[in-house]
Amino acid sequence: MATVADLIVRILGDAGVRALFGVPGGGSNLDVIAAAGRADLPFVLTATETAAAIAALAQAEVAGAPGACLTTLGPGVASVVNGVACAFLDRAPLVVFTDSYPASRAVEFTHQRLDHRALLAPVTKWSETLTAENALQALTRALREATDGPPGPVHLDCPGDVAAANTATSDATLTAPARGRTSPDDHMRFESLLAGARRPLMIIGMGARRPDDVLAIRRLCEGGRVPALVTYKAKGVVADDAPWFAGVFTNAAIERPIVDESDLLIAVGLDPVELIPRPWIYRQPVVYCGGWPVENVHVPFAARMVTSVAAAVASIEAALAPSEWDRSDVRSHAERQRKRMAVPGAGALTAQQVVEIAARRLAPIARRVTVDAGAHMFPVTMFWPVSEANQMLISNGLSTMGFALPAAIGAAMMERTAPVVALTGDGGLLMCAGELLTAVRERLPIITIVFSDGSLSLIEIKQQARNLPPAGVSLGALDWIALGRGFGVEAWAAAGEAELERAIDAALACRGPALIEARIDRSNYGATLRAVRG
To answer: 3-state DSSP: the chain helix, strand, coil percent, rounded to 5?
Structure first.
């Protein structure tokens, strides 16, 4: 026998969870935090519940194992929803524990009472209320549901009198889940299209980031002479400097030239949630292979093979005809993407310059880079070199602001020997500025570069495109240096290239977190967006 709290911590540890993140209340999660302390599982206090979920999500992506967070009842659950939604649409395994009133309490209180399961239902795969009797079964199923494809968040409500109760710890038995199957017709169409292709082009998505996936895909690129585009979340599966790296794919205009030259698109681990919401315009057939079923509403898949990526790639290797692609042409396409993104500004520091300088100085030594939503995201995803899967962490399915700093905290908790770089807009950092204190408290080597232009620039661009006045997008003046130092973060500002280089040198000399305000000329953002999306 053990307490439910001890069982929670043991099962999380066995599943590979590296830390618990959250904002505690006064109920069951106090018992869970105490149990985590006894088991040397770190608990990290964050400033907000949303940041706790995002930090746990980042750890899940880096470790290839579930992440975990906890909240108090009522307002804590309401606050965590955005982070859980991010895990849901970015297909990240996450276990969310929420406090609730004791199950034994006879009186039903309405104060702070919300229907937690109903609130989280649209953004979780499964939900259950823990009891002393069902704890082992529920926890075992929660981990299975979180990791089965497509991965995603699950929710466990833990009444205040349950975590301290004794519970059985013998092994739980669960029926294996029914998995998607590849129909014989799909299999035949798949092989027929592969055999007839002379210029196949892979589009690598977030479902192809496991180490064996990466090895299989890189082997196919080299041995089969097959070029590969990658989505934002699949950056690094094929390294940016690899001979068969063809650029980034988002269902936009910038990748269209090489797609138009192909005669078959092979979507490996691609989930349509990764693509920008515009109609699919390509006429050549597209086939899918990956670890979970996907719909063919947005992308008209001619055939779908649901199996492990490594097994699917082996089948592709066996069925493909000799490729007619020329390696130098493929590299030229990738270079043209970068050249289209190199949009000059009006003389001041542009986002492109910030990314290129920061990448030149930091990419060789930083273990991870995290990217927030916003106009700066386009040059980051194009110019920051990535050579490993999950080296760049980004919110794509949800594309939420306020992602980069909490994600950097989750990643840096696992890798304290090298800096993690968080690249964020000023609007995004304002949404999670309190997490600077979290980074200080945990003494994390995070270098946050804020692209400071005083505006919600991506929204302002869209207003300009519709000939609307720039209403509701101006952030106002903010002293980022004073704000950072108020949290105990060393901080610098840069308005030119030389200042930025000096600030990066100073940040690298810090033992803890550092903040650099890069004062941006946003005049080229509209042209940058048009270069990417048309």
So the answer is: 40, 15, 40
